C-alpha cells in the first residue's frame, strides 16, 4: 500500500519547557533527514505534562527554516479560538517562507477551560468551527474576507484545496468533513468506547468515503501512538510514566475505567510499541490503515527521552514504515 508518513509532536519533554521546544525542533530536523513526508504539531492552550504548544505557527516557521523538504502542518489548530483570517495570514507567511510546504488541520479543541480563558462560548464550538472554517477556506482561496477588497497577504500562489484537514470524533463529523471537501483526520485513539479504536474509526472512515463527492481523491490521515525499540520492555521503560500519568487524568475525567492493567490502558490508547517486527505485525491487523493516505506517528502520551525519541524515529522510517509499503522520497543520514 502507498501512504505518506508523518510525525506528530505535542512538544513535550522531560526537562524545562525551553528544552522541550528545542528538542521538538531537533526532531523535525531528524524526521526531515529520514524522509518523513509531513511534520505535524498539536495546539494546546492548556499545559500538558512536560510541555504543550499554544502557538503552532511560529514553531512551524522556525521548523521551516531548519528543514529542507518535509511538509509542515497542524493537527490541530483550534479554529473556534482563533480569528480565521489571522490563521490564513499565518498559513500564507509560513507557506511562503517554506517554499510551499504548508498544510493545515483544524478542529474544535478539547475542553471548556481553554474556551473560557479565550472568551469563547464552549457550547457553540461546533457552530463557530463551521463558520470559521468557511472563512478560512475562502481566505486560502485568495477570496475577499472580512470586508470588501480585503484578501490575505502574502497572496497564496499554491492551491490549498487538497491541503486542509478536519479532525472528527464521530461518524456525523466524518460525513460533515466529506461534505465540506476537507481531508479527514482521525485521532490516535477513540475514548469512551470499549471496542478497539480501529473498529470504531473504520466505520467513520467508511462514512467519510461514502459521503465524498469531490472530483479529487479523498484523503484520510490516521494518527497512531507508535514507539519502536529493541523490545517491549525497553519501550515500556520510556513510555510507561507518560502513559500512566495520562491514564490518571482520563480516569479522573471518567473517560477510562479505574483499576485496569497497564496493558488494558495501552489498548485503550491504541498503542503500537515494542520491537519493529511486533509493531509491523500489529499494523497489519489495523482496520483503518488500508484506507488511509497518511500514517501520522506520535509518541504521546509517552514522553521518551530525546535520544530514545530519535532512535524511535529512525526505526519507524527504516524498519516499520517500509515493511508496510512506505517509500521515502529522500533519505539522508540522521
Outline:
It comes from Actinoplanes lobatus. The protein is α/β, with parallel strands linked by helices.
Query: Structural class, from helix and strand content?
Result: alpha/beta
- Percent strand: 5-15%
Q: How many strands, what sense, and barrel or not for the largest sheet?
A: 10 strands, parallel
SSE order in H/E notation?
EHEHEEHEHHEHEHEHHEHEH
CATH class category:
Alpha Beta
Low-confidence stretches: none
User: Based on CA inertia axes, which overall geometry fits?
Assistant: globular
- CATH level-two architecture: Alpha-Beta Barrel
Number of strands: 10
User: CATH H-level name... which superfamily?
Assistant: Luciferase-like domain
How many domains?
1
Figure out the total of helices. 11
* Measured distance between first and last alpha carbons: 26 Å
How would you describe what is shown here?
It comes from Actinoplanes lobatus. This protein is of the alpha/beta class. It has one domain: Luciferase-like domain (TIM Barrel, Alpha-Beta Barrel). It contains eleven helices and ten strands. β1, α1 (about 15-35) and β2 form a beta-alpha-beta unit. α1 runs parallel beside α11.
List keywords for this structure.
single chain, 334 residues, alpha/beta, TIM Barrel, 11 helices, 10 strands, globular, oxidoreductase activity, acting on paired donors, with incorporation or reduction of molecular oxygen, Luciferase, Luciferase-like_sf, oxidoreductase, Luciferase-like_dom
Task: Explain the layout of strands and helices.
Blueprint: E1 4-9, H1 17-34, E2 38-41, H2 56-66, E3 71-74, E4 77-78, H3 84-97, E5 104-107, H4 112-117, H5 125-140, E6 164-168, H6 171-180, E7 183-186, H7 197-211, E8 220-228, H8 232-252, H9 262-268, E9 271-274, H10 276-283, E10 294-298, H11 306-323
Parallel strand pairs: 1-2, 1-10, 2-3, 4-5, 5-6, 6-7, 7-8, 8-9, 8-10
Helix pairs in contact: 1-11, 2-3, 3-5, 6-7, 10-11
